[in-house]
Design a protein that fits this description.
mainly beta, Methylamine Dehydrogenase, Chain H, 3 helices, globular, WD repeat, WD40_repeat_dom_sf, repeat, WD40/YVTN_repeat-like_dom_sf
Length: about 400
């Protein structure tokens, strides 16, 4: 990794293999990430990490997830103590998949309980401590009606929607939740053309109603639950499997996809003949791609080459041309920054399955590799200055 003079990554090790990571979306004051383990033989865990980017302190709260090995974890956009998980366990000699909503224990109480009497006698602060695994998450409800392999749960980020999407082996289901976000009250199902979903991910469109975008094997499909049918489809965005998709948060109709051809592609869904841009910043499968939530010229991607790539894509950003100050109308505008790879982060030693921007600080992001290493990194200070000044 090219050195950034202002930042060193924060590293946390989960005890078991892991592939589930998310930001705590309802927490906008502090930097919080959630990660979950995937162990077949041991009790699984959910790790809540609270990161202070001013002094690099990292608090770790560890909760038991006894229901099974976790494949996907998401947080409610509106209530920070509510999460969803997709998990599996062996029943009758077969692997069965489930999805549930859970509530997290109070982290401060959990951390205090994790301090020993010796710690108390020495006056050790709960800050920068690691809690013991002495509290389990509490189940609110199961997500019923799912069949076969369950891939992902996706929360609608629009205020007041109280909706989640679940994808099982052959359908996409939209569930409405009660006002407390603790019970399911309705379900709408759209069958899909593919008989069996493989390597599925999903994301809500932040711009257009209930349009949900999913990846499934070779295709990327946009579904509109208001009419219960697909509204667009890219039959083969990548020459091999498509692993991930994300909507540009600031520019309607624009999406990014990542796939097993080692490429990240950017599309306008109104014109799908060719991608707007194709980048190849990885040497193996791309498992994740995500726009920065505020500065859409910044895009992160992760791969089983064990690297995370941070790219700048000014040419297709929502505001690519600098705006002149009114006092300097005669000053020629500087050309926009070129599209390029800003930095490759090589702090992992195994396949990196998940990446996630912070919901509290748009310059901070986390990445998770299968060996359980979670890294919290930062956009280089020199790049933030180019955007802000």
């Amino acid at each position: 990794m090219a050195e950034d003079e202002s930042f060193s990554p924060a590293i946390h090790g989960l005890e078991f293999p892991s592939r589930a990571l998310c930001a705590r979306l309802a927490e906008t004051d502090e930097i919080h990430f959630l990660a979950a383990t995937q162990s077949v033989t041991s009790e699984n865990q959910i790790h809540l990490l609270t990161y202070n980017d001013e002094n690099s302190e990292l608090d770790k709260y560890i909760y038991a997830h006894p229901a099974g090995e976790v494949w996907d974890i998401k947080s409610s956009p509106f209530k920070k103590d509510i999460i969803s998980s997709v998990y599996s366990r062996i029943e009758g000699g077969k692997q069965r998949f489930f999805a549930s909503l859970w509530t997290l224990p109070d982290e401060q109480a959990t951390l205090t309980e994790g301090l020993s009497d010796a710690d108390d006698s020495r006056g050790v602060s709960p800050r920068n401590r690691k809690s013991s695994v002495n509290t389990a998450v509490t189940k609110l409800c199961n997500i019923e009606g799912l069949e076969g392999r369950v891939s992902v749960v996706c929360w609608d980020p629009k205020e007041g929607s109280n909706a989640i999407i679940c994808i099982d082996e052959s359908t996409v289901k939209l569930y409405k939740l009660d006002n407390d976000i603790s019970q399911l009250i309705s379900c709408n199902t759209i069958p899909t053309e593919e008989k069996k979903h493989i390597n599925v991910n999903a994301v809500f469109n932040p711009h257009l109603g209930l349009i949900d975008c999913i990846t499934s094997g070779e295709a990327v499909t946009g579904l509109d639950f208001r009419v219960s049918k697909p509204v667009f489809s890219i039959s083969r965005p990548h020459s091999l499997t498509t692993r991930d998709v994300d909507f540009n948060p600031n520019k309607p109709y624009h999406i990014a996809t990542g796939g097993d051809d080692c490429q990240v592609k950017f599309w306008d869904i109104r014109q799908l003949t060719n991608p707007l841009i194709t980048r190849k910043d990885h040497t193996h499968w791309v498992w994740g791609v995500q726009y920065n939530p505020n500065h859409d010229q910044l895009v992160i991607s992760c791969s089983s080459d064990s690297n995370v790539a941070l790219s700048r894509l000014t040419s297709i950003a929502s505001d690519p041309i600098p705006i002149l100050d009114e006092d300097f109308q005669d000053t020629p505008a500087k050309p926009p920054q070129p599209d390029e790879l800003i930095m490759t982060y090589d702090v992992h030693e195994d396949s990196v399955y998940k990446i996630q921007w912070s919901s509290a600080n748009s310059w901070v992001f986390a990445s998770l590799s299968y060996d359980g290493r979670l890294a919290i990194n930062h956009v280089p200070h020199s790049e933030t200055l180019k955007i802000l000044l």
